[in-house]
Amino acid sequence: MARLHDSRHGSDADGIDDDDMPLTHEQAVVEADAELRRMTYHPVRKAVGIVVAMGVAIGASLGVGYMFGGDPGGIVTAITGVVCPQDAKYALDGDAPFVNTSDTSEHPAKGARLSEKDAGQYYLEAVKPSIQPLRDAMNTLYGGDLKATRAAAGKAATVLRATAKALRSRTWPDEVANAAAVVANEYDAKARQASYVADSVTPSASDELISLDAYGVSEADVYLRGKLGLPAAEAPSAPLEITGIEDRGIQQGADAGGSTVDTGKRIIAVAVRSHVPGTLSGLNLTFDLKKGKTTLGRISGIMDDIALAKGQSIVVPVPVDIGGDDGGIAGATMSWDSWSLTDWRGESHIAAASDDFAEYAPDKVMGTFTLR
């Protein structure tokens, strides 16, 4: 999967102090204008001044783009010979690996043929060793500890490769042969992602493990389990465990800036416990509000400037801005939509729950909660 480029550029990621940053475009325009004004009294100096001022504006604009958006076209590098710090980091990490999981031709069936009776048990034994190490690696990356993340990802990569190898070392019953091959490809893809993270030099690279569909289940896995009569698949659980939910009704209090009193909002208090190694400095939790299969809208709760360690709990107030006072949301339920966790360095790690996350990663607390 190709990694996003421009969105990861910024002073926070570079560790560059604002005082050392080049002029912004606006500042460059102001200084260029001032230079032009100073040069208007002398024709020769005026001409020189125009060139100088234009150089200041262009140079500053290139500098801003260079530090924040990379070096498109290699302009700055060509002029100065200096490589953009962010581009240098990407050159070290390289692009994230991509595997076409649907192409099973590269690994034809081989090994002893499994009977339908034995295939189910063999499958469970092959995939079980990978489940917890992968979840541990996913939880670890949210903490922003590169060394710990690399170690956890390396362990996950080893067992994921072993699972893919085990699945490919048998000839499966015809009815599930293609599904087993696709699942093996998916474990191989995860192994390559984990190896990429284990070898990375930038913490942001670790988010590859929580990219699209990370918190979901494989269709091939669901199909295979159904055909073999196995227990249902389980999606990786969220890094925060919900320990309690309370509908507190209409609440009044300070607004987001803490300076005034708002007009009152329906507040859902959500207590969560962290399973992330290390300390989180911020949370942004988003939930779907549903009635049956109909999504009424999304609600979010944000906590900034916190210090939430693994095993500790915090109550997140989640305002409800939909439904009004007409009882339109009475009896509605909640389910995970997404979450953004900020590590101790101030970098946010964002992940989304799959559409069927509530089915394959059921939450005991949220599953029994309804709004009054």
The overall average pLDDT, rounded, is 79
Query: Over the alpha carbons, how many angstroms does the gyration radius reach?
Result: 27 Å
What structural category arises from helix and sheet content?
A: alpha+beta
Strand composition percent: 15-25%
The total of helices stands at: 10
Shape assignment = globular
Strand segment tally:
9
H-E order: HHHHHEHHEHHEEEEEEEH
What does this structure look like?
The protein is an alpha+beta fold and 372 residues long. It is 40% helix and 21% strand. The chain folds into 3 domains: 6-92, no CATH class; 100-228; 240-368, Immunoglobulin-like (Sandwich), CATH 2.60.40. It has helices spanning 11-14, 25-39, 43-69, 75-80, 85-93, 116-141, 146-168, 174-198, 219-228, 357-360, and strands spanning 112-113, 170-171, 240-251, 265-274, 279-291, 294-309, 313-320, 333-342, 348-352. Helix 2 runs antiparallel to helix 3 (43-69), helix 6 packs antiparallel against helix 7 (146-168) and helix 7 (146-168) packs antiparallel against helix 8 (174-198). The chain starts with 10 loop residues before the first helix and ends in a 12-residue tail after the last helix. Residues 1-54, 60-78 and 85-92 have low confidence and may be disordered.
Features:
40% helix; 10 helices; globular; alpha+beta; transmembrane; 21% strand; disordered N terminus; 3 domains; 372 residues; 4-stranded antiparallel β-sheet; single chain; Immunoglobulin-like; 3-stranded antiparallel β-sheet
